[in-house]
Amino acid sequence: MDAVDHVIRNRLDSGVPLVGQVARYIISAGGKRLRPAMLLLVCGALNYREPTRHTLAAVVEFIHTATLLHDDVVDASTLRRGRDTANEVFGNPASVLVGDFLYSRAFQMMVESHNMRVMEVLAEATNVIAEGEVLQLMNMHDASLSEAEYLRVIRSKTAKLFEASARIGALLAEQPPAIEEACATYGQAIGTAFQLIDDVLDYDGASAEMGKNIGDDLREGKATLPLIAAMQRSAESDAAVIRHAIEEGSTEALEQVIAIVARSGALDVARQAAQSEAQRAIDAISVLPPSEYREALIQLGTQLLSRRA
Predict the structure, then answer these.
(1) Domains of the chain from N-terminus onward
(2) Beta-strand (E) ranges in the chain?
């Protein structure tokens, strides 16, 4: 990861000072670096040690960071990772344009791998993520969203880059299709579990721990699984409170919504869904040869379920 950070710092250089300033601001905020870490762990599990893995790990972090910059503008977010978002500090235009820079820099770097299949995977992932963002936008303030429709969004918007990161590790190691698909399945399942827990924490977390404002999803009119499950399991009067909050994008009834979600058992429903995804990931990765890297990948699946931020 130190080597990946070194690549990130070097490749943020630009002749336009504001580009580097905005990009460094959001990347220096830290974050979990789960996607590049996953790529490196898969490479380790498959005994691939070439420096290309560091470059491509930086590529997936750049793509992820670009989506964060754009997301915060679209969602009008003010807090991420415990501090002001880039759009709060530098304004929306700079955030959007620097996000574009990070996308284009990522594509410059992936070409350096001279691996057409890797470029294909990353290009497809970037396109699917963009589609997922638009799909989520279309679903805003829709209280009738089904669980299947919700899962379609998060598997496009969040899980796709996890899937691509794990798949690239197998591609770099020149593994057969069965191993490649197992790694991809692992990544998709981990990404889905990650987002499910993230959505749980919006109604069962503390903003100080999470580094974002509690209730942001509700303010943005997002019907996430805790809300969908709560509406299904609650009395009509309680379901109506949640429906109104989603449709209006209002946090006025946030405390009431949190209480309804808690007593309905919806958080347990969402956690169980995350548990199922984590187990799917662990089952998929079991085809890899035993190693400390495989154990770390398994541990990642179990630790996601207990995270508080």
Answers:
(1) 2-300 (1.10.600.10)
(2) 79-80, 83-84
